[in-house]
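Help wanted!
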Amino acid sequence: MTEFEQPVLSVSNLNKQFGKGCPSCKDLNEDSLKKNYCPVCGTVYACHDITFEVYAGEILGVVGESGSGKSTLMQCLYFDQEVSSGEAYISSYKDGKTDVFAESSQQKRYIRNHIMGKVYQNPLLGLRINFTSIGNIAEKLIAAGNRHVGKMEARGKELLEHVNIPIYRIKEAPKNFSGGMQQRVQIAKALSNNPPLLLLDEVTTGLDLSVQASVLDLIKTIQRELQITVVIVSHDLGVIRMLADRTMVMLDGRIIEQGLTDQILEDPQHGYTQHLVQSLL
Amino acid sequence: MEKILAIEHLSKTFVIHNLNKQIEALHDVCIDLKEGEFVGITGKSGSGKSTVFKCIYRTYAPQQGCIWYHSKKFGLINLAELSERQMIYLRKYEIGYVSQFLNIMPRTTARELVKQAVLEMGYEEERAELEAVKMLEHFELDQELWDCYPGTFSGGEKLRLNIARAMVKRPKLLLLDEPTASLDPASKLKVRELIEQLKREGTTMIGIFHDIEFMENLCTREYTMRDGKLADLEL
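Answered by r_m:
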């Protein structure tokens, strides 16, 4: 059956290894590796043969235990890390048939500033913690080529209002804010250029329940209003159940299972996924 | 009449890796459904009634057999082998599912919940509001409750909201998973009226019910399940 729509992001055979590898772990068989680590040369195979697609207006969840390669995958997609091999295509970049991993660093910067937004687990990575909040948003807008101060300020105010940062605190630096507020400033910053693709890396981890709820509500509302595509990494299955349309499960750098979220949660096929779902409180 | 759904030789076995166990839930189930029909399924707890529904809705991945469905968008397709994106589309536009529990996003009011179902289909805010209000009125949910969180609703109110949410999309096929369980006789009567109303409106439905009395005179046909298999067909 032919597909009835085009993916916004399609990634094929993404590999990421830390270290050179050695003859004993070259073939990546299970005997020579401990999980995804080679005990002989110390190479870590963080992502192995990752292939997936995300479609317009869809939320894709990524779950897995610590060290399964979820964050490395997100870093590769946002060009924070260079991939070892693999290809990725973004429908709104050029003709959609250009491998973005093979582009020059200028082009990658363009993609990052115009097509993608990312929210890090740690606000220190996503924000300049000593800048003002509105300045943080202006930074991303300037990087995307905006130069009109009045327009940028208006846009910044609009965004910060949208994420419920009080208007009288927008000139304050995020270092004075609570964790939840910092996370919301990050979301505003990530959304500032209306990116069609949003990458969320453990956005709610470490937040208390009520703040977590407001951040989740915000993501859901924004996603519906702007019809953006979201890839969300989390080890909180409740978050995934609430947000994601489809989910993929990672273990030791590989995707072991992917499917509709309720199918993954109610009828998991792989032993690890069953173990994970049974651990749900 | 045209067949909307044809389940052919459906089997489903759950493999539980940690316990090294296999549980056979469905064995060679065949069910037909024509347009405008209301087919009922009865059977004891654990006989596999809900499993059939979940296989249709793809909450469970079917293993063997085919689930042929006549889609407005895709034509005749096998739900057992459909791509996930197509299933998401069908869930949004064509197949409604009413479970006995209200699975909802927390902190969402009844009105929002029904509205969201319309917004999902790509309609504008005003249209969604209009449709939502119409549906809530239609299913006689108390107006005071519209802007409350459904967590505090009674069983009957939750059910009506649940049906309103599914029906606002005007689905081609509606799956009713024990809509009368845990309801008092008066509420059951309401549900009965509701189903009759849906029937008059021409919705094709398939429902799971515990009490056979309830199903009488309501269903076009009924199936009985026993230990994951279909028992003899009754009229």
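OP: Thanks! One thing I noticed: Chain B touches chain A at residues 14-18, 54, 58-61, 73-74, 77, 82-89, 105-107, 116, 119-120 (CB under 8 Å).
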